[in-house]
């Protein structure tokens, strides 16, 4: 490989959860910071070890300030499928790239990381001693070294068939860690105000990263609920705004969701959630509003729309309509007394796409969850819009027969009025109407599973 490629190679150590979400997150963040995920770069599917070509160390550091899917990144100095191959690779790495980190005034330590195997301390020391050919001139400091180097060994993905020797061995200089601690520090369990469908903290940050949310962006959630997605966007410096049809949720009223708590307290609301994390300055407002009704002036307002629409399982899908059966002497009430009607999923998502196409800035992103009945799902069932380009489509399993897909789209052309109904002429529209019965199919599957479990118990 040419030296110029070698100089830009980095090893990314990925977390082993939400596997489908990892690649879109890394691609989105590289794009956000001026890098590009080229097809020539190497990824290893479910493996935690990815080799990437990144233009600069600054971009690598910025990537790790955002990602919750990656644990650490290393400047890759050597790689092989055996110790001998690794040592040969290290001997070919340019010495001038090593010297700034190995000179006599520096301190360092070497760590051993293994995936799918545990080594004894003696085995670790043996591997460190084998690297004595490297031109280390500094002093070892195990507590506060200036530079940390790692040997990373990959023993595959099968815990029941662990090989004697690793499949791959890497050596690199540690650059930075990812933001995995955000999953715990923003955990819903510790949150002041929660609801039945409050989004998991890790997924909230993944959605913000897929949406390329950055400082001073304006991010909108039309199905805001208790504001979990606003919190993730605000953490990255975006100003956040939302709407929801549920008056009680928006105002923090009614019955509490937490166990052993009957009613919500006077300070349980979305603003209090952002205040809890020191993010209140990014809170614009949240309004009671029906997502099916146009309530905005024409224009482009948002850098990202990030949302989790209701599926009709734990939260109902509702819209409002004008009541129209009144006696003549009360006809004036027609425009003032709304009634609640069912909101078909197909209509909800097509309204969402139209809204995004009309209100996103060019290059802005729409990130939303799409519930699917897996036995019938095909990619053709994902709603589309002529102004929006599909960026990624990731699955999260909900049950043996249902899942939800995280859809990320980017606005690529200016919205025209004629675009509003163009999707109805597409072959995509008819298959997606099948999702209107998602609730029935969901509970049908639950009923069948319960019956199957009862039958097996009786036998």
Question: How would you sum up this structure in a few lines?
Answer:
The chain is α/β, with parallel strands linked by helices. The longest helix is centred in the last third of the chain and has 21 residues, at 438-458. The protein has two domains: 6-177, VC0802-like, CATH 3.30.2130.30; 181-319 and 336-429, Rossmann fold (3-Layer(aba) Sandwich).
Explain how this protein is built:
This protein has about 450 residues and is of the alpha/beta class. The protein has two domains: about 5-175, VC0802-like; about 180-320 and about 335-430, 3-Layer(aba) Sandwich (Rossmann fold). Helix content is about 30%, strand content about 25%. Strands 2-1-3-7-6-4-5 form a seven-stranded mixed β-sheet. A seven-stranded mixed β-sheet has the order 10-9-8-11-14-16-15. Helix 2 crosses helix 8 and helix 8 crosses helix 9.
> Any idea what the shape is?
elongated
Major beta-sheet overview: 7 strands, mixed
Count of DSSP strands: 16
Q: Spans with pLDDT under 50 lasting ≥5 residues? A: 1-7
**Number of helices, counting only DSSP H or I runs of 4 residues or more:** 14
Amount of helix = 25-40%
Instruction: Give the CATH H-level superfamily of the largest domain.
Output: Vaccinia Virus protein VP39
Number of domains: 2
From the alpha-carbon coordinates, what is the Rg to the nearest angstrom?
26 Å
CATH topology of the largest domain: Rossmann fold
Structural class: alpha/beta
CATH C-level category of the largest domain: Alpha Beta
The CATH level-2 architecture of the largest domain is identified as: 3-Layer(aba) Sandwich
């Amino acid at each position: 490989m040419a030296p110029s490629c070698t100089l830009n190679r980095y090893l990314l150590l990925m977390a082993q959860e939400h596997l489908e979400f990892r690649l879109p997150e890394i691609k989105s963040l590289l794009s956000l910071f001026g890098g590009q995920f080229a097809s020539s770069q190497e990824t290893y599917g479910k493996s935690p070890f990815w080799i990437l070509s990144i233009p600069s160390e600054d971009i690598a550091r910025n990537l790790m300030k955002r990602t919750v899917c990656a644990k650490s990144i290393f400047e890759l100095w050597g790689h092989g499928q055996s110790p001998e191959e690794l040592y040969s690779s290290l001997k070919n790495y340019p010495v001038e790239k090593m010297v700034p980190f190995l000179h006599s005034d520096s301190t360092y330590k070497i760590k051993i990381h293994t995936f799918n195997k545990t080594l004894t301390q003696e085995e670790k020391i043996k591997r460190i001693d084998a690297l004595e050919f490297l031109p280390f001139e500094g002093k070892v400091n195990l507590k506060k070294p200036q530079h940390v180097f790692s040997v990373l060994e990959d023993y595959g993905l099968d815990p029941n068939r662990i090989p004697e020797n690793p499949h791959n061995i890497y050596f690199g200089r540690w650059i930075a860690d990812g933001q995995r601690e955000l999953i715990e520090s923003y955990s819903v369990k510790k949150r002041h105000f929660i609801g039945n469908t409050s989004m998991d903290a890790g997924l909230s940050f993944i959605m913000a990263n897929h949406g390329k949310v950055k400082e001073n962006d304006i991010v909108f959630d039309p199905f805001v609920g208790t504001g979990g997605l606003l919190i993730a966007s605000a953490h990255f410096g975006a100003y956040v705004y939302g709407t929801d049809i549920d008056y009680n949720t928006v105002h923090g009223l009614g019955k509490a969701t937490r166990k052993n708590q009957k009613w919500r307290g006077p300070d349980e609301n979305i603003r209090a959630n952002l205040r809890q994390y020191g993010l209140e300055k990014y809170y614009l407002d949240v309004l009671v509003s029906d997502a099916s009704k146009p309530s905005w002036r024409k224009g482009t307002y948002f850098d990202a729309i990030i949302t989790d629409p209701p599926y009709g399982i734990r939260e109902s899908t509702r819209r409002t309509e004008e009541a129209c059966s009144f006696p003549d002497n009360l006809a004036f009430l027609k425009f003032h007394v709304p009634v609640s009607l069912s909101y078909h999923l197909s209509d909800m998502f097509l309204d969402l796409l139209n809204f995004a196409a009309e209100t996103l800035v060019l290059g802005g992103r729409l990130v939303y969850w799409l519930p699917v009945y897996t036995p019938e799902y095909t990619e053709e069932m994902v709603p589309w819009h002529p102004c929006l380009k599909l960026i990624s489509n990731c699955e999260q399993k909900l049950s043996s027969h249902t899942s939800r897909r995280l859809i990320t789209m980017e606005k690529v052309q200016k919205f025209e009025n004629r675009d509003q109904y163009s999707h109805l002429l597409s072959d995509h529209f008819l298959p997606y109407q099948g999702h209107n019965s998602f609730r029935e199919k969901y509970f049908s599957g639950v009923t069948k599973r319960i019956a199957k479990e009862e039958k097996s118990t009786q036998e």
